[in-house]
Amino acid sequence: MLKQGSRKVVLFSPPYQGKVFGPPLGLLSLAASIREEGFTPIVIDGAITPNFLEVLAKEVTDTFAFGVSVLTGPMINDAIAASRTVREVCPKLPIIYGGWHPTLLSGQTLREDFVDIVVRHQGEKTLTEILRRQSAGAALDLVEGCWFKRNGNIIANQDRPSSPLSSLPSPAYDLVDFEKYAKKTGARKLPYATSIGCPYACNYCTDMVFYNRRFNPLTVAGVVEEVVDLVRSYDLDEIALVDSNFLVDTRRATALARGFIESGVRFRWTFQASTDLLCRLSDAEVSLLAESGVSLIGFGTESASPEILRKMRKSHQEIEDMFECARKCRDAGIRIIYNLIFGYPGEEERHRKETLRVMGQIAEQFENVTFSPNLFTPYPGIPIWPELRNVGLYEPQSLEEWGGMGLGQSDLPWMNESDSRRLSRSMSYFLLANQLNKFRNKLSSRIAKKGVRLLLRPLHWRLKHHVFNIPVELWLSMPQHWLTMRRSLITGDPLGRQLKEVH
Q1: Type and span of the H or E element at 192
Q2: 294, 264 in Cβ contact below 8 A?
Q3: Considering only CA atoms, which of 399, 392, 336, 326 is closest in space to residue 365?
Q4: Which of 77, 147, 235, 353 is the most buried (most CB within 10 A)?
């Protein structure tokens, strides 16, 4: 089944929607672990390799195993294409799937004829043991964290307990072509994880399922030493933390900031967190974050309706915290993004009006705030799925069907066509008003400011009264491409589609 004598393992990350963010951190971490076992990892990132199918076809001819890491959504389609290419070139080569989607739907993923093995949850030790056993010709029975097929039957081993991040080798950053990423992104930046896991139980979030609400951090000293070394070694401008909720331990967060300052190495860094945790920091501590290089923070505010927040199991988030968080960051000179979820099960127009009203107030008071409104997306494995099935939401039954699900692209049965159109227009008007307000604040001429203020009046009236028919203002604004519906919580960059048409 395996290429005898070869120790090369090809790890593939399919391209994803939106701008290139950076090298695939998860695969780099896997690469470091299997390299310690004597294997030779080859990481191929589809985001910067447009001809990845051709590259894969050449690389796998002398390969021991082929691994794919995949998230739910359109990147699954390229994972399927890559796997079929590999299967055609090397019919007996083991194809191993891992990452969020295969972990959440392991059995369904293994039903595909091009998937042989699934690595569940944290994969470093599991993948290493799989390769070690197969190298020795041993069976995969009892390999924790591994599901596999034998004679067409799925064998489900028990899950592997998570390992402390500090017990794993550092990701294989030496495998990254930083010049190629810099050329593609226009910046020298790197995603980096100082921790995984979040203790909150938001019932729309896959994170709580994947990490079981356990916070697993690296040590402060270790992070400071490694990040500073990475910035120096690769001439990086920015470190984008991909921690689920960076501020879970606020003392640790401020200790990291002090460590970066004391290093004397200057760079920008960004992270995502929840508003309640930032509000536990004093103004001086938030200023410390800014002094250390924090330039942007993303917050999953989701809604400003207390009723919807309760439905989401976000009782930790208070409306007052949204205002206070914006103030603290503004005073420190930090930009922030508030992520919003509309179309949540049980949400009514009155809830949306309340969210838009509150966020409109925040936009008027705080110039440092940007918003990212999204339509609810029912990702696999989230705790709310039983309720979703009861209200008639169709759950994809194959890997290929899940590949057709992008962020905000689901048909939600509790929203008819008219509701969807009104929701889309309300989000568009909200974003347009926010952008015009920021544009006005940048103007120095009083006359120009007054002119923009006049333009804002009909937008505010529409939002206040929820009147969105004949959207003339949106038609006129479309050529400016101002209305980016999705932004990365980590970088603030647009992630994908912009509104080019309003029906």
Answers
A1: strand 189-192
A2: no
A3: 326
A4: 147
C-alpha closest to that of 221 among 195, 253, 256: 256
Provide DSSP, 54-100. HHHHHHGGG-SEEEEE--SSTHHHHHHHHHHHHHHH-TTS-EEEESH
Please name the residues in contact with 172: beta carbons below 8 A apart, sequence gap of 6 or more.
28, 29, 31, 32, 35, 41, 43
Asked whether 207 and 246 are in contact (CB, 8 A), the reply is no
Distance CA 173, CA 177 (A): 9
Q: Which two tokens stand for residue 271?
A: 């992270």
Alpha-carbon distance of 283 to 21, in angstroms, equals: 31
Structure tokens at 378: 């029912």
- The alpha-carbon radius of gyration of the chain (Å, integer) is 24
What does the block give as tokens for 74? 């359109």
Give me the sign of the Cα torsion angle 387, 389, 393, 394.
positive
Domains belonging to the chain, first-starting first, are 8-138 (3.40.50.280), 186-376+412-480 (3.80.30.20)
Q: Is 270 helix (H, G, I), strand (E, B) or coil?
A: strand
Which amino acid is located at 198 in the chain? C
Expressed in angstroms, the distance from the first to the final Cα of the chain is 54
- Across 5-14, 150-159, 384-393, which has the greatest mean pLDDT? 150-159
**Residues forming beta bridges with residue 118, ordered by sequence position:** 97, 147
More confident residue, 68 or 452: 68
**From the CB of residue 153, how many other CB atoms can be counted at a distance below 10 Å?**
8
Can you spell out the DSSP letters for 24-56?
Answer: -HHHHHHHHHHHHTT-EEEEEETTT-TTHHHHH
C-alpha dihedral, 272 to 275 to 281 to 284, nearest 10°: 80
Cα 188 from Cα 103, distance rounded (Å): 31
d(CA 41, CA 44): 10
Summarised one tens digit per residue, pLDDT across range 405-423 is 765 556 788 888 888 888 8
Nearest CA among 422, 339, 413, 425 for reference residue 378: 413
Contacts 24+ apart (CB under 8 A), 145-153: 145/119, 145/120, 145/121, 146/117, 146/118, 146/119, 146/120, 147/106, 147/107, 147/110, 147/117, 147/118, 147/120, 148/110, 148/116, 148/117, 148/118, 149/110, 149/115, 149/116, 149/117
- What tokens were used for 239? 């470190």
Which position has the higher pLDDT, 394 or 86? 86
Exposed, middle or buried, 381 (CB in 10 Å: 0-12/13-18/19+)?
middle
Q: Tell me which range, 2-6, 136-140, 394-398, is most confidently predicted by mean pLDDT.
A: 136-140
**Neighbour-count burial of 154, counting CB atoms closer than 10 A to its CB (0-12 exposed, 13-18 middle, 19+ buried):** middle
Contact predicate 216/388, CB 8 Å:
no
**Cα separation, 131 vs 362, whole angstroms:** 53
